[in-house]
Specification:
By secondary structure, this protein is of the alpha/beta class. The protein is 39% helix and 13% strand. It has a domain of 197 residues: TIM Barrel (Alpha-Beta Barrel), CATH 3.20.20.140.
Amino acid sequence: MMPWSGVFDAHVDTLLVIGSASSFIDGNAETHVDLPRARVSGVSGMVVAICAEACQDPREALSRGLEQWAEIKAASEGMDLRLGLEGCEPLAAGWIPRDAVDAFSVATLTWNGMNSLGGGTGTDEGLTAVGRRIVHQLHDTGVVIDVSHLCDRARRDVISMGLPVSATHSNCRSLCDVPRNLPDDDIREIAALGGVVGITFVPDFTGPDASLDMVLDHLEHAASVAGVAHVGFGSDFDGVKHLPEGITDVTAWPSVFEALERRGWRTTEMELVAGGNWRRVFDGGGTGR
């Protein structure tokens, strides 16, 4: 079964791998996601991220991503598409045109490694003064603050500021002990601040011989720690080449919820994790736009 309001996926990296917006709009068998497959697979919304920090020429990647986003958004009638910024160096450096800043609904403070905001995965650096300024700026303008990719020290610095934050694509460290995953204490703190933890499909963050069932183990563990009102999904489709067994691409969403139903999840609970929790974050309480 599929929840009637559909899936809201909080993190998709397809802009990193497409050559033109038309391949996302019209369909492209080489990617995990495109609009035609998303529509028939029960997806009602998603965050499409621009990750300029992952590219050799970040400014060119940002410009190209914004152009592609404008075309995709114009073709997305009936689909709640949001734009994400993965790594906020372009914002801190002033590379984003003023008329484009308002297009972003969510911002991941760092990608991997260090930027001017603070330490990402693979470092042990805290949040910088620039990072604190950007966090306040994001909050004041209604952009969702995403702590995925931050190292432990920087993430805890952000959490200690007491503002609403979420983790759009992170799993549970207690089930898979890698730095990109969240300790239970941080999952609990994110929930206490009103945020959501998006369980991701990245095999390296799921566990050895990753499978759909293992992904759902992470979902259930996060729900046991944070409460079902504070978990969702952030697939990271097209951010990785390989996916867990049982997940092929965006067309796997019905299988995800069939598996949850077999585990005894109620319809009301599946509605929340499918998208209800993310819609609350993005649409309410000043924590998102």
